[in-house]
Structure formats: C-alpha cells, structure tokens
Amino acid sequence: MHPAPSVILFTTLSGLGFGFLAFLGAGCLHPAGLTAFLLWGLGYALAIGGLLFSTFHLGNPQRAWRAFTQWRTSWLSREGWASVLTLLLLAPVALSDWLGLGWSGLPGVIGAAMCFVTIFTTSMIYAQLKTIPRWNHWVTPVLFLCFAGTGGAILAGKVALAVAACLVLAAVMVAGWQIGDRRFADVGATMESATGLGAIGKVRVFERGHTAGNYLLREMIFVVGRKHAARLRVIALVLTAVVPALMLLLAGPHPVAIALAALCHLAGAMAQRWLFFAEAEHVVGLYYGQR
Amino acid sequence: MTALPGPTPRKLGLAIDLDTCVGCNACVTACKGWNDQGYGAPLSDQNPYGSEPSGTFLNRVHSYEVLPADAPAQVVNFPRSCLHCEAAPCVTVCPTGASYKRAEDGIVLVNEDACIGCGLCAWACPYGARELDAAAGVMKKCTLCVDRIYNDNLPEEDRVPACVRTCPTGARHFGDYADPDSTVSRLSAERGGMELMPELGTMPVNRYLPPRKKGVEQASPLAPLLDIRAAGLAGWLDRVLSRI
Ligand code: SF4
Ligand code: SF4
Ligand code: SF4
C-alpha cells in the first residue's frame, strides 16, 4: 500500500493525542491553571491535527460531514463519531482542570475510555480489510492501542508505566511483524486463484492491461522501498521504545527529558507507520504479478 | 445505504469467456466510450499523449501465460471489471453511504454526489475493480451499464452493457444469475463458471468460463514417411557422412 504522508500523520499524531488525552482525562496528572491549559491544548492539538491530516487524503473533503452517516456498517464512520464524541466529552474536564472547577472525575474516566475506543475504531479501518492480509488480524488493533498507551504514558511523564509500556509495545511490534510476514500465505490468495486458471497450470503475467501506471498501481501496489524494511524495523524499535525508555529511566520525569522522549517516540512511530503501509501487500497485486 | 440488501430477486452480471476472448481491448474502449458521456463524472485521463499516460477505466484486459505440466504454454486473455459481489466488501466499508448494492437487481453502484473520495472501498475490493478518478476525486466503477440495460430509448438489441454489445468474439455475456434458465446461468453450469478468489468470501456474481481443454498434440500423419531409408547413391552418401 502507498504510504501516503497524510495517513501516516493522521494515525501517528491522533494516536499520540488520544493516548495523552486519556491520561489527562483519567486524572493521572492533576495539572492546574496555565499548565493545564497547555497540556490539554497539546493533547487536543495532536488529536485534531491528526484528524485534519486525514482529510487531505480525500478527493472531496468538502463533503466530509457525510462520513458520519454510516456508523451502523462502516468503521471509518464509527471512527468519525468516536473521535468527535471523545473530544466533546473531554472538553468540560479540560475546562475544569484549567479553571479549577472540580468537574473531573467520572466524565474524565469515561472520556479516557472513549480515547481508547477511538483508537480501536481507527485500527479497525485497517484490520477489517481482508484484501490486505497483513492488516487483517487482531494484532493490528492491539498494536494501535499499545502505541496510544505508550505515547500517552511518555507524554504524561509516568516513568515506570512508560517504561513498561515501551517494553510491551516493542514485544507487540515484533509479534506484529512475525505474524504479518505469514499472513499473505495463510490467506492463500495466489495468481492461480485470482485468475481461476490454476487448474490448467502455473500462471505468469504475459502482458499487463496497460502500458503506464494507474490508480491501482499507485495506491495499492507499492513495492519500492521495501528493501530497507529490515533496517527500518530496527530503527522503529529503537526510536519508539528503547531510546524513550532509557531517556526516562536516566533523566526521570524532567520536562525536557519527556519532550525529547516523546519526539523520539513519535519519529519512531512514523517509521513504523511508513512500514505498516509499505509492507502491506494488497491481493490486487496478484493480477499484476506484483505484491 | 452501505448495509447490504441480502439476497436480491435478480442477480444481474456478466459471464466472461476466457476461451474466446482474443484480448482485442474492444470492450475496454467501448466501456470507456459509453461511460464517458452519461452516467456521473467523465472518466478522465491524465497526460494522455505524454510519456506516462494514465486514466480511469472500469474494465481492463490482462494477458497471462499458463504453463500446464505436460503441454506447451497457453496465453489467456483476461478482462477484469466489477463482479457485482453478493457480499460486496466495498459497500460495507463506505462511510458516506455513497457505495450501495441495489436491492432489486444486485448492481453495485456509487452515488458520486455523496462520495468523499476516501478510497477505502477500492482498498476493500480484491479485484481492483474501483478506480478513484484523479480529476473528479470520486470513485468510479463498472455500473453494469445501468443506463443502457433499462433504457427504453435504445433499440432492444442495445439494451445490454456496452462491453457485451461490442465484443467481436462474443466473449462477454450479460444476464440474470438468479434465473437458472438465463443464458449466463446455463453457460456457467455447462462450462464450469469460476468465481475469482473465492477464499476472500466476496461471493462474486460474475463468472469466468475457463479455457476449453485443447486437444493433445496430434502426431503428424506423414510421420512414418519421415523415417524412409535412403537407398542407392543417397544411401551410400548417408552411410559415409554418418561415419565421418
Ligand atoms: S468486484 Fe470489487 S467493486 Fe465490484 S462488488 Fe466486488 S468488491 Fe465491490
Ligand atoms: S471513496 Fe466514496 S464510495 Fe468509496 S468508500 Fe469513500 S466515500 Fe464511499
Ligand atoms: S458493464 Fe458497462 S461499465 Fe461495466 S465493464 Fe461493461 S461496459 Fe464497462
């Protein structure tokens, strides 16, 4: 799949944003006054910024409101609802932290839970697609939830929790790659099943349907850049989990350490997300003899 | 709406004959020609006369080489368009309700006025049957020529999809798979019509008729004559030349 910058920024930024908002909502930080304003502002900016980036992916963004209509069947629609509801639910909690109104508590906890529901709906947009076997597995939602939890814990400066989350995230990432590498073969789609010609013999592309590129090749049959996959996996592991954990362990919850650890984690998350798309093979590639 | 309608009373679709298709691309041209002028946004081209031409098509013809274990390779031309799946995954993922499957005849369509061009339906289709138009930013797909098949302004013989009407070898057939006596149902039953990628559970309506078994290579009737022993001068030459 084509690793479009808009979807990479959308999933990484809003993931981090909702993760952090969950910690704020659950009352793990007790900020007040200007600090509360800035911290909540950061959470909202990340979450909303990510969502805005997702609209750059659309052909007709002016009709984006229509995406709220099909929540009964579509995960993308559910994601729209979940994110808006979560942001609305947490708004009074943020206000109360800022102005010291004492409203947090239960609404905050519900909002925090909704943050993870939102992340889950985002992940299901990808995990539901049978056509992309690497994503079509429970490990995809687990991975997205772990990313949000880890990013949130780092930004919240909860050292022990963040280090533990980094370890879990690293393990889930490795498991995700291991499982993902086998998925295409497990699903069993081949050029023979795609063309129905397997009963005659082995199928090979003789001629493509067209001489130059098309939407399918650009969007779903992205094969360049996979040769650096092994190196990028190591980079993603080091940046998302190892370095942030070490930074927080050595420096403690110092604001500068937290900022650096979060930035490092975010950079790693983007590398991981680039791979998430670049390595994902769509079965339509079988018609082109390319995966 | 993006909920699937369940079993439809009619199941309109195509039967595509991989035995007779000669890969002439007439259906590709006819499809683009017809669907460029009436239904929805035109099928745009980008850089059509440049070095990297690209455009939106609802039907494309591939060619494959199939290698049987005990016979020479065979070339099979393979038209690829929407299969109007019964369990269409492209419909249920759509967030806007733009993608839908008609309850009356099972045709899968896009309401372009509601489509935001998110592309998720194209990701969900295993067969590459949907292409986002780069100019209009909306999803395009085969309409089964819904604006021909019910069109009373056209002469009766033209009330079939453009690709079916134009195919010079009659490799594309149109009909109702819910009716066991329709041409497509009978063809599919007789010829062992195939579902593509059944493992993905899309339940395609369209069927592909497999290439007929080619006769085994006949030994030449002249073969016995080829083994004639030369006699006389030629025989002598033959013996001398084989020795040196
Ligand atoms: S072939 Fe693709 S676009 Fe057509 S109905 Fe099936 S899944 Fe949808
Ligand atoms: S591209 Fe259009 S038709 Fe396809 S899922 Fe998105 S809104 Fe629906
Ligand atoms: S039925 Fe119509 S829209 Fe579909 S491939 Fe044939 S000509 Fe194109």
Low-confidence stretches of chain B: none
Number of helices of chain B: 7
Biggest pleated sheet of chain A: none
Level-1 CATH class name of chain B: Alpha Beta
- CATH topology of chain B, by name, is Alpha-Beta Plaits
Number of strands of chain B: 11
- Biggest sheet strand order of chain B reads 10-1-11
Number of strands of chain A: 1
Structural class of chain B: alpha+beta
Low-confidence stretches of chain A: none
- Return the string of H and E elements of chain B: EHEEEEHEEHEEHHEHEH
What is the name of the CATH architecture of chain B?
2-Layer Sandwich
State the helix count of chain A.
10
Structural description of this entry:
- The complex is a heterodimer of chains A (291) and B (244).
- Chain A is an all-alpha fold.
- Chain A has 2 domains: 1-128, no CATH class; 157-291, no CATH class.
- Chain A has 10 helices and 1 strand.
- In chain A, helix 5 (139-156) runs antiparallel to helix 6.
- Chain B has 244 residues and is of the alpha+beta class.
- Chain B contains 7 helices and 11 strands.
- Chain B has helices at residues 26-35, 89-92, 120-124, 146-149, 162-166, 183-191, 232-243; strands at residues 12-17, 45-46, 54-55, 59-67, 74-81, 99-101, 108-110, 130-132, 139-141, 172-176, 207-209.
- In chain B, the strands form 5 sheets. A 3-stranded mixed beta sheet of chain B has the order 10-1-11. In chain B, strands 2-3 form a two-stranded antiparallel ribbon. In chain B, strands 4-5 form a two-stranded antiparallel ribbon.
- In chain B, a hairpin with a 7-residue loop joins strand 2 and strand 3.
- Chain B starts with 11 loop residues before the first strand and ends with a helix.
- The mean pLDDT of chain B is 92.
- Classes of the chains: A mainly alpha (291), B alpha+beta (244).
- At the A-B interface, helix 3, helix 7, strand 1 and helix 8 of A face strand 3, strand 4, strand 5 and helix 3 of B.
- Strand 1 of chain A pairs antiparallel with strand 4 of chain B, so a sheet runs across the interface.
- One iron/sulfur cluster (SF4) binds next to helix 3 of chain B.
